[in-house]
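Forum: Protein Structure Q&A
Topic: Joint prediction for protein chains with partners

I've read a bunch of threads here and the consensus seems to be that you should model interacting components together rather than docking separate models afterwards. I'd like to see that in practice. Below is the full input, 485 residues plus whatever partners are listed. Could one of the regulars post the assembled result?
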Amino acid sequence: MTKSNNHYAIEAHNLNIFYGNFQAVKNVDLEIERNKITAIIGPSGCGKSTVIRAFNRMNDFILTARVEGEILFHEKNIYASDIDAVQIRRMIGMVFQKPNPFPKSIYENVAWGARVNGFRGNTDELVEQTLRAAALWDEVKDNLKRNALELSGGQQQRLCIARALAVKPEIILMDEPCSALDPIATLKIEDLMRELSQEYTIIIVTHNMQQAARVSDNTAFFTMDEDRAGIMVEYGLTSHIFTKPHDQRTEDYITGRFG
Amino acid sequence: MPRDTLNRQMNLIQDEILILGSMVEQAMLSAVEALKKRDAKAAKAIFLQDQVINEKRFAIENAIIILMATQQPMARDLRQMAAMLEVSTELERMGDYAKGVAKVNMLLKEKEVYMPVAEIDKMAEIAVNMLHRALGAFISEDTSLALAIPHDDDQVDELFNTAYNKIVQDMIANPNTIDQTNFIMWIIHNIERMADRVTNICERTVFITTGELFEVDGMDEDDLNI
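Posted by a regular:
Agreed with the consensus. Here's the joint model:
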């Protein structure tokens, strides 16, 4: 078995992803540092969402999707035949573009996942602790029975983050988590991400370069090659990528001179 | 190509920097010319003109800050804007040196004073020429020219040393005019500093193209033997 370095929370090696005959991602090597926020940026169709979905086997739900190469998590390839994808998704949670709370109470949204995963402790404590961690507690503590769909968009998204946290994951994947939110709600999520990165590893896909620059420690820039397959062009410290990137394609994209 | 608005605004600011630069060049040359002629009226005009230079610098600074806030520059664009801010500050300070020369002229009034005219003239000529070329290199982002220009500073330093010795000799020979002659020290100091600051503009040119910040002239061994 390939050894993975503890410095990294998860690593993609020679990752190739296909949808039927179409290659969506080509030869990606991406090592994600533990307890850091890693942003993946790039134009539409560059494979960034495909890559992040591969990190917790969300691509399993797409029948034509095929993954080659390996993604190492705890020194094991998560695509190996003896790996339980459900277990992977518990340890590697995901927050989506559009807030998608269950049409149930705030309390139930947080408690449900933990119960399903066999949580036997004090659920009230877990709900409070998790909502506090998601910076939502003060706004909802007076009525936890309220239907989650009555919350504002930003609150719903923080509830979805709380729901992901309730099952004690190690990594949180965020696919455009703020694209449906106003600027203030966006900044609240960004502050929350910074807070959470002390305990969790966060990977965020975003179209918003300013957001990537504000929130992340490391940035990976993806683009398409001549076959329209997604490739990783450059990966490094965010402070470096946004001030003096090495690759002209990165420069063109982040200065808005792409295409 | 996207970002036409940003490109257009950057070009406008570059034009303003070139105008500011030529105002400073003109101020220094006129100040030295007025000094040679002991023309106090011309000196006063140059002294007052510095206000216009200062205002232009603020206008440029303001335009850059607005552009930063509205266009969110990254990478090379960001470096270019940061460099333009720095260069406008350097130019404003050079304007102060020209003003300083004019001020000495006004302070001297009708008093007799010794001046190493040839050296002062030559120093100003080289410094202004350095500035002119440095701004050209800055706008065209010509790194090799930007790296070459600071070498001319050695000539200015040499002329400074010659002028300095001549002034000291005069002070020894004519202690009764030391007050006035001391003013002439300010003159050569101001011109010498102007040439030094040209080097800073060259550093910013290198920064735009490479992202690296370093002293292009470095420190002379001589600087350590003070």
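Chain A has a mean pLDDT of 94.
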